[in-house]
Amino acid sequence: MKLNRANVETKLREYLESVDSVQLVPPHKDVLTFMHYVKRRPLGSGPYPRVSFFEASNRVFSDIIILFGIRRLLANPLVGDVRLPFDEYEVALGVQAGNDLKAIAGSCRLIGEAFNVAQSYFQEKKRRTIKKLRREQEADYRLIVFNADAVKTPTYYVEISEPSMLYLPIDIWTERCKPVRIQDFS
Prior knowledge:
19% strand
């Protein structure tokens, strides 16, 4: 999916509407039965109807990190002191091979990964993601977009950002409620 200033709000709204269409089943009195339902039974609705609530939750939260992150970059292309030159980003939602994010502007190329992870797993996930991004030699910018609540001080990661490794923490609860004005930074 390609996201740009003209379509990012619409695509984000459509995605969130799809998530809201999920039909939830009330908790069952038998805890194991309910846990089995959440872990194994396909949802039948939403953006991932063929997977369980558990698996869909993981995918949806990663997708939302991507969508809110790209919306933020299109509204303001600064990550720390680095201004990105991209007007359009190609994103891969769900579980797909390759990079989650790509962008090209002239001869400049960006690759990126996005994830939503618990604090206890952040350092390991970050380490593996950096390793993956560094294998791609033909990128001027490497970007990691992640949930802000995975770290104690999200601003630290923004401050240490440089073109070779940019960090964009996203607070989905704030982003969800925030109207964004997409400006032209050309």
